Amino acid sequence: MIAQARQLLKRLYGYDDFIGLQEQVVSSVLSGQSALVLMPTGGGKSMCYQLPAMVREGVGIVISPLIALMQDQVEGLKQVGVRAACFHNGLDPSANSEIIRQLLNNELDLLYVSPERLVLGGMIELFSRLTISLFAIDEAHCVSQWGHDFRPEYMQLGQLASRFPTVPRLALTATADEQTRNEIRQQLGLLDAPVFLSSFDRPNIRYRVLPKQGAKEQLLNFIKREHRHNSGVVYCLSRKRVEDVAAFLREKGLPALPYHAGLPADIREQHQRTFIQASHSIIVATVAFGMGINKPDVRFVAHLDLPKNLEAYYQETGRAGRDGLPADAWMVYGLQDVLMQRMRIQEANVPADVRQRDWARLEALLAFTEASGCRRQLLLSYFAETSEPCGNCDNCLHPPRTWDATEAARKALSCVYRTGGYGVSHQIDVLLGKVTEKVRSANHQQLSTFGIGKELSLNQWRAVYRQLLAAGYLEWHGEEGEGLRLHERCRPLLKGEQSIALKQDQPAAQWKEERERG
Ligand code: ADP
Ligand code: ZN
User: Residue limits of the Helicase ATP-binding domain (predicted)?
Assistant: First the structure.
């Protein structure tokens, strides 16, 4: 049967052979087994269900959350002679009954169904009157209740296992952190099914993270120096910032367009279309942008604000270099980002276990941003993949210099202890011996830590606090969101039992020069 699938691959799609894990997945489904398939975007997931659906007897049911994408796929399939249709709530009654007629007459190889249509009455009953070759659940991470793409309709898919025990179920996703993976297996009844995990490595993407020092100027310099005539995506956290950055880039002569959920739909579509069609275009966007966008020649993805977690970072940066040519994933981040994220998690109205999970995800993200080892290795390890240092990320190309920050860290931590709260700026004012209004009113010029940090600059102290926060020595605390406090973890450091090396922040300009020399 696999030979038959291979023939179809050649005849219908013109491909000589399977890529990656496709052959293994197809064989497994052809033998009637259910499976979970984890492949990065662009990894070739659709073949994994389209081919077995055609080879096996009956109709393959594909559940997918994006109607526009389903319609594209169905159009493509029809053009090569596959009998496919798309079932969603936007169909008029006659189109609707035509599909039902085709189904009952075994005239379809593939039926794409939107989640909304699926939960409409009668679907499961209709299915039970058909011979079904397989169920493919695309974007399966939508069953994850705490994920950002949660679709309540996907919960209905749990019953497929009991209603159709002999029909293989294939769950597919590009989202693969351990917890999401387990949730999918649980929800879709795949605990005993094999898991096919492809490599998530995108070797042509070069990862780079820099300390934020005037983000907009940094971005402008990066684009001007390295991507003067290229297309790229710039991600920002808020709509206001998107507008601001897009206007700034345009003012500097770059073809930048804003994209966020607050813009009218027609403007959004127009900007998206321009971006996809133009050979030189920059889209400045919130995370609302990207799902289902396939522009192969995106040469850079820039983050001006910290993404939500590593998963999101991987997805967002994964939109660069789809054509396989070199591309940059570039990010600046600073102390403020860490504080913002901590607040976001602290203030979110969610159950304790979810908050716990968000903390863990933030820790993983911060470990990535502050890493002094290979970033790719770290990113892949998040997806449970082991690899060697890549030689193609900032840290591999330019191993960061570290310095013995034991003394500085002790001063920084003691200051937090002595002030009993307060934010980073105030701690630094105290260390530098500045008599500000706040210092005076709290009488902090009397503290033993007042003025003991003059050997470092404001920026150096900010870097110290940022890294101490990222490493969890300090935590952000306070219902009024006002101060830092010590974490258990810093005890050995304060007691002189441990030393600490911190990374030296390299100015962006230096990085570039070194790169040219190297
Ligand atoms: P995903 O759904 O995982 O994002 P797709 O199924 O859309 O990926 O496939 C990504 C791209 O790879 C498509 O352009 C597809 O035509 C191509 N592709 C898939 N399978 C093969 C193959 N066996 N040989 C060559 N190209 C393939
Ligand atoms: Zn590396």
Answer: 26-194
Q: Are 345 and 355 in contact (CB under 8 A)?
A: yes
385 alpha carbon – ligand 2 mean position (Å): 14
Burial status of residue 496 (CB atoms within 10 A of its CB: 0-12, 13-18, 19 or more) = exposed
- Judge contact between 464 and 413, C-beta under 8 A: no
User: Which residue do the tokens 């367009």 mark?
Assistant: 257
What is the SS3 assignment for 277-336? HCCCCEEEECCCCCCCCCCCCEEEEEECCCCCCHHHHHHHHCCCCCCCCCEEEEEEECHH
Ligand nearest to the CA of 39: 1
The DSSP bridge pattern shows strands 298-303 and 256-259 to be: unpaired
Q: List beta partners, residue 256.
A: 282
The Å distance, Cα 389 to ligand 2 centre, comes to: 5
Rounded CA separation 18/8 (Å): 11
Q: Which amino acid is at 507?
A: P
* pLDDT (0 to 100) of residue 454: 95
* Sheet hosting strand 169-173, strand order edge to edge: 84-87, 110-113, 59-63, 132-137, 169-173, 35-38, 195-197
Residues lining ligand 1, Cβ inside 6 A = 15, 18-19, 22, 39, 41-47
Contact 18, 26 (CB under 8 A): yes
Query: What's residue 357's pLDDT?
Result: 80
| Atom of ligand 1 at shortest range from CA of 138 | 2
CA 174 to chain centre: 10
Establish whether this prediction's ipTM goes over 0.95: yes
Phi, then psi, of 87 in degrees rounded to 5: -110, 110
CA distance 157 to 124: 10
pLDDT confidence of residue 353: 78
Question: DSSP state, 504?
Answer: P
Q: What is the DSSP string of 155-169?
A: GGGGGHHHH-TTS-E
**Mean pLDDT in each 10-residue stretch from start to end of the chain (518 residues)?**
94 92 96 94 90 96 90 92 93 93 96 91 90 96 80 89 95 84 93 92 95 95 97 96 98 97 94 94 92 87 94 91 94 88 84 81 88 92 87 94 93 93 90 95 94 93 87 72 81 91 68 44
Strand partners for 136: 62, 170
Separation CA 363–CA 349 (nearest Å): 20
Which residue in 231, 504, 487, 198 sits closest to 363, CA to CA?
487
- Please give the distance, rounded to the nearest whole angstrom, from the Cα atom of residue 309 to the centre of ligand 2: 19
Which ligand gives the minimal distance to the CA of 368?
Answer: 2
Any bridge partners for residue 231, and if so which?
Answer: 298
Nearest Cα residue to 315 out of 323, 307, 324, 326: 307
Give the containing element (helix H, strand E) for 47. helix 45-55
